[in-house]
Description:
With 114 residues, the protein is low in regular secondary structure. Helices cover 0% and strands 5% of the residues. It has a two-stranded antiparallel sheet. 26% of the residues are buried.
Amino acid sequence: PVVTNEMCYTEQGLYYTGYRSKTQKGITSQNWRSNYPHSNINTISNQGIGNHNYSRNPDNDPNGPWCYTTDPNRKWDYCGVPKCKWNVDCYSERGALYRGYRTKPAGNSYNCND
């Protein structure tokens, strides 16, 4: 299988760009631009935030990606996004689907599948 930063997160998940839209308990995530059922959620940084309800980690929470929930009794929760095997920026296959943030080749490259 191809492993990308859409399937798992590296470090603390600040750059996670996956499509998980439910909490680890199965509750649907609230759209980041919505104020229902929880208001005042739009005061967080723009790191990956947009008109969607995908899990993100805009505050660099050490426990990884999270989301606001559509449950009026639970404002937010972690989303159960797995941490990548390598805690570094990595590539898979030959790097065709790489969506990391390196702009120059480094001395060591890490394949996510190794």
